[in-house]
Amino acid sequence: MKLTDPVTGLKGIGPAAAKKFEKLGIRTLEDAIHFYPRDYVDLTHPYPVADAPYDTACVVKATVWSIGQLRRIPGGRTLLKVSAGDDTAGLVLTYFNNPYAANALKPEQEYFFCGKFSGKMTQREITNPTVIPVMPEGAPGLLPVYPQTAGLTSRTVARCVSNALAAVGDALEDPLPEELVKKYRLGTLAQALRTIHAPADWEAARHARRRLAFQELYLLQLGLCQLRGRSRTLSGARISGGSLKEFFASLPFSPTGAQRRAIAEIQADLAGESPMNRLLQGDVGSGKTLVAAAGMLLAAQAGYQSVLMAPTEILARQHAATLDKLLAPLGLQTALLTGAVKGKARTVALAAIADGSAQLVVGTHAVLGDAVRFANLGFVVTDEQHRFGVRQRAALAAKANHPHILVMSATPIPRTLGLLLYGDLDISILDELPPGRKPVKTYAVGTDLRARMFGFVEKQLAAGRQAYLVCPVIEEGQSELQSVTEYLEQAAKPLLPGRRIGLMHGRLKPAEKTEVMRQFAAHELDVLCSTTVIEVGVDVPNANIMVIENAERYGLSALHQLRGRVGRGAAESWCILVSDHDGEEAKKRLEFLCSTTDGFAIAQFDLDNRGPGDFFGSRQHGLPALRTADLMKDSRMLEYARSEAHALIAADPALEAHPALKAAVSRLFADEGSMN
Ligand code: ADP
Ligand code: MG
Fold first, then answer.
1. In terms of domains, do 579 and 456 share one?
2. Which residue of 42, 109, 541, 648 shows the fewest CB atoms closer than 10 Å?
3. Which residues pair with 90 in a beta bridge?
């Protein structure tokens, strides 16, 4: 059989079962053999029945003594008791609602029983255990435990997988070059797959996993290497000879030392022979926009256009306004291009981009459109990069002849992941906030304190300040609009009587969003009641207080970003995390956020305690999903895979000489489009 054949070709899988397998993402034989166990049950060291620990899953090996009668018990349920034991103690197997359980058991036979023990010292019990017959042909090893779905047990999945493996047999081609397999002692793909599904012991399982993880990282690196395609190219844009004197003089404040340093680094890169590929990392409020603006000005002075791509409409508009304010006095023209820019305005913008009269283009994904032609693009900036996939960045870069690239991010990225996402990337860090900023005072409160807390918000409003209210997370079956409106009517309005409250959510049309933001920025609104669409980048210095409902539902980095919307002026500012979750874990996380404003420490904390919506657990980083490799834990393997991938791409850029690898790489990246 072929890898692409459907699993229905296997024995025992009809249309009904196929539907269930599809829920697990298994359609073809290939899907099946790459559906790895999530864990194993160790059959190599069963407990003597007398020593089996209580309340944790474990395995015993015991002989069935006698099988009882099926009984009906209240509630329409059935009960079946089986007695078994070894030479250390007796054991009662209890089956609820499993009238056929006895069919799998024969008296006098020996089985492995897996499950949690309960009962008394004299009478051990195990309820609905997993049963595995003891094979005469010697000791079995580890039993795979597969992710399950309704109607498919781990054993059914196991049978499908092993049939698929047997059916595919020699048709399994190993994409890895032989030299690599030898060099890193990886073993063949066929071996690894057979082993991961039925390892003899833990060591074998680890070895198989290592092989599969290496392959995955290697394919990933090959793909990234190809997408990047920047190895040793010359930049099409040499940007030198400009001056920033006038720019610095025009600012209402003096740049921080960190900003000056980053600008100098960018200036040097732009003048270099190869294209810049730089990450500008700086906590919220550290002033990244100004640094980008300096680069854009230098580009314009050398006759090149710049483009800034932002993840949302609101941010794009805000960036356009900010950059226009900074750069229009120096003679630069800005064009805005987003999904909402339509009709005449769009035609005008496209023309200005095409004829080069707009030196600066700001927009959303819309700037990637085919209709967008630049006259002479030299400098590409993306903001809040993790919202963009690697492909999209590559698409933007493709609109020019090896342009300089600057990626701005407020999320500190560990080195390993940075390498992966950006390859040979240079990093500038803004580790200094503009002077006079006071840290946002952060408190976690329970919902019982909501009224008091709103009293405090009201005091700030009375003093002429503004507030953000981040609404509760949307519940299942509820629309975003319902959720926001309900919060507005039931909490915000009654608790802040007479205040001008604006609503912001994803259902608003772009023009409506812009209008709400304009009103809030102009202080025509006191309060902005919003979903997390205000998450990144929004800048209204007079707003000094933020309330975040359901705070426990967010990753700390996300909360930190949200909190960065306040504390932008010189005044004292507050962030109040409302949560009724009294789990220790949630408490610990929120308390940590209250105790520090160090974005790097917060990201590290998120990493160490993978909480909800964390950066690395989610697919926010725009990479294909990995099955076996762990970007954090396998960092050494990642480095090997990376250098091997670089070497191969240098020798065979299009992988023409390695068709199996080429096919495997494109499969891995095939679903990336759906990730953003
Ligand atoms: P972020 O790094 O979060 O994108 P922004 O670029 O939005 O930060 O800057 C945050 C705020 O700080 C803006 O209002 C900006 O005008 C202001 N700002 C930037 N640099 C300085 C500086 N050197 N001194 C004072 N204010 C600054
Ligand atoms: Mg920003």
1. yes
2. 109
3. 85
Q: Which of 244, 253, 312, when mutated, tests ligand 1's pocket best, judged by the most ligand atoms within 8 Å of its CB? A: 253
User: Tell me, what CATH number does 116's domain have?
Assistant: 2.40.50.140
pLDDT, residue 390, reads 63
Q: How far is ligand 2, taken at its centre, from the CA of residue 410, in Å?
A: 8
Number of domains into which the chain is organized: 3
Q: Which listed ligand is nearest to 536 at the C-alpha?
A: 2
258 token code pair: 């960190």
Residue 625 lies in a domain: no
Give this prediction's pTM: 0.65
Spatial separation of the C-alpha atoms in residues 548 and 447, rounded to whole Å: 11
Pair (391, 445) in one structural domain: no
Bridge-based pairing of strands 360-363 and 124-127 is unpaired
Ligand 1 near 372 CB (within 6 A)? no
Report the nearest atom of ligand 1 relative to the CA of 259.
23
| Ligand 1 atom closest to 288 (CA) | 2
3-state secondary structure of 605: helix
Q: Whose CA is nearest to atom 19 of ligand 1?
A: 287
Q: Is there an atom of ligand 1 within 6 Å of 285 CB?
A: yes
Distance from C-alpha of 637 to C-alpha of 546, rounded to nearest angstrom? 43
Nearest atom in ligand 1 to the alpha carbon of residue 289 is: 6
Any domain includes 4: no
HSE-CB of 334 using CA atoms within 13 angstroms: 22
22 in a structural domain? no
pLDDT along the chain (676 residues), means of 10: 88 89 90 90 87 85 92 87 92 86 86 85 82 71 80 83 89 89 93 92 92 92 75 74 94 95 96 88 88 98 95 86 95 94 95 97 90 94 70 72 86 64 74 84 91 94 95 78 88 93 87 86 94 67 93 86 80 91 81 88 73 45 70 79 90 91 84 38
Beta strands in 448-493 (DSSP E): 466-470
Cα 22 to Cα 6: distance, rounded to the nearest angstrom: 10
Last residue of a domain, one of 119, 138, 157: 138
In a domain, 674, yes or no: no
Residue nearest to atom 20 of ligand 1 (CA): 287
Q: Let me know whether 52 and 94 are in one domain.
A: yes
